[in-house]
Design brief:
Helix 2 packs across helix 4. Helix content is about 75%, strand content about 0%. It is an all-alpha fold.
């Protein structure tokens, strides 16, 4: 996602504002743009995480909440962001290799699922 304004441009806009009211409005625009960019990144990450959760549910099989917990555990044990673990897992559908630490922890997590979790 491209950033609409750079911090330097934002500062220039704020400095050029003729009145306090304009300055307040420009500050609000800058904050809203930052929030919008953050939400866009979160939505994109969420879609990949949901795809990975579906893959785990198909592999195990297990309920959605258990698949989420397993992905979080893999992320924590590998010290890799959840969105990056999910992206690596989804990339395997395009013949990309799953990184060894993620592969190892995913196997461990799948083995640890209790029969009651596999509904």
């Amino acid at each position: 996602m491209r950033q609409l304004t750079t911090p330097r441009e934002e500062q220039r806009l704020l400095t050029a504002a003729a009145s306090a009211e304009e300055s307040a409005l420009l500050t609000e625009v800058v904050e809203l743009r930052a929030t919008n960019e953050q939400l866009g990144r979160a939505l994109a990450s969420r879609a990949v995480i949901d795809q990975a959760r579906g893959m785990v549910m198909a592999l195990a099989p297990c309920p959605s909440d258990r698949a989420w917990d397993l992905l979080v555990d893999v992320s924590q044990h590998c010290n890799i962001k959840l969105r990056d673990v999910a992206a690596a897992l989804v990339a395997t559908t395009k013949d990309e290799a799953l990184p060894e630490p993620i592969q190892r922890e995913l196997r461990r997590g799948l083995r640890c699922l209790r029969p009651a979790d596999r509904r």
